[in-house]
């Protein structure tokens, strides 16, 4: 994957699965991209985008392609039903007024992942932020935004956190820099509440929290924040998302994913759960 496209819509995860299945069926039938394009009377680029989940799966397109690939009627009907499901907007669609369109892809991946591993050098990761901390962070990034706009963004951020309370909640492994704890976001009271929240969640079985201390010095992860996604579905590759000042990227090439995964692991080894909790407790007292 490459730089996020503004036209990406959700639910991305199911569409990714179906796009890969379409590709597998095409290859299994010995059909080229050109063969598939001729069947639909479209350009090969359209077929590529269908297989890469960059556009919605039109039921008529799906049906014609599967017929071309020699699929049976039952398989075609089941695939078309799934395509229609994949085209339905996710719950986050109602927040399209509050976030960039490309971010819906991130929320979809986050909601569908089995494992999340994040690195945050500047702020507490969004899934663990308190309402007041989230408001202060978003206010800093949107200085000209109205209170209504900020409230909508905070609401979305808090709703995203509900995935950690599901019965089938994903595992979340967060690595943060100690600098995050010293950056006074929203004032001492807000920081104290935020640190208490981190102490609480660090005791949950499905959440790991490692804080890299200043004493660790220079290390491999001193870079932009990133999130690693792993899914249960075998059709989906591991994906890494990284956000820069003026762009965001989704990476699924193995070399890119492995380098981020290794960096996350190396950073986690620079501390321990016990040392991280001790640091949180020490900083919480400083904000009393």
From TrEMBL:
SUPFAM superfamilies: lambda repressor-like DNA-binding domains. SMART domains: HTH_XRE (SM00530). Residues 21-76 form the HTH cro/C1-type domain. One of its GO terms (molecular function) is DNA binding. It comes from the Bacteria. Pfam families: DUF5753, HTH_31. This is XRE family transcriptional regulator.
């Amino acid at each position: 994957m490459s730089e996020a496209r503004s036209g990406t819509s959700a639910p991305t995860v199911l569409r990714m699965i179906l796009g890969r299945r379409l590709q597998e069926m095409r290859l299994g039938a010995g059909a080229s991209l050109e063969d598939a394009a001729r069947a639909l009377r479209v350009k090969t680029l359209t077929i590529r985008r269908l297989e890469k989940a960059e556009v919605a799966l039109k039921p008529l397109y799906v049906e014609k392609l599967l017929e071309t690939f020699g699929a049976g009627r039952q398989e075609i009907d089941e695939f078309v039903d799934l395509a229609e499901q994949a085209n339905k907007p996710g719950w986050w669609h109602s927040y399209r007024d509050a976030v960039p369109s490309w971010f819906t892809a991130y929320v979809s991946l986050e909601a569908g992942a089995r494992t999340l591993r994040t690195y945050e050098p500047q702020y507490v990761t969004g899934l663990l932020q308190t309402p007041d901390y989230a408001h202060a962070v978003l206010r800093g990034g949107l200085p000209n935004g109205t209170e209504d706009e900020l409230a909508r963004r905070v609401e979305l951020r808090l709703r995203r956190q509900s995935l950690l309370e599901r019965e089938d909640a994903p595992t979340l492994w967060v690595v943060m820099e100690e600098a995050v704890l010293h950056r006074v976001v929203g004032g001492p009271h807000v920081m104290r509440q935020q640190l208490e929240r981190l102490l609480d969640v660090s005791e949950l079985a499905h959440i790991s929290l490692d804080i890299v201390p200043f004493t660790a010095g220079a290390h491999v992860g001193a870079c932009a924040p990133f999130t690693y996604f792993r899914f249960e579905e075998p059709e989906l590759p591991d994906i890494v998302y990284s956000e820069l000042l003026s762009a965001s990227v989704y990476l699924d090439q193995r070399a890119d994913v492995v380098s981020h995964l290794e960096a996350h692991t190396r950073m986690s080894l620079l501390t321990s759960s016990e040392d991280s909790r001790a640091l949180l407790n020490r900083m919480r007292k400083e904000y009393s």
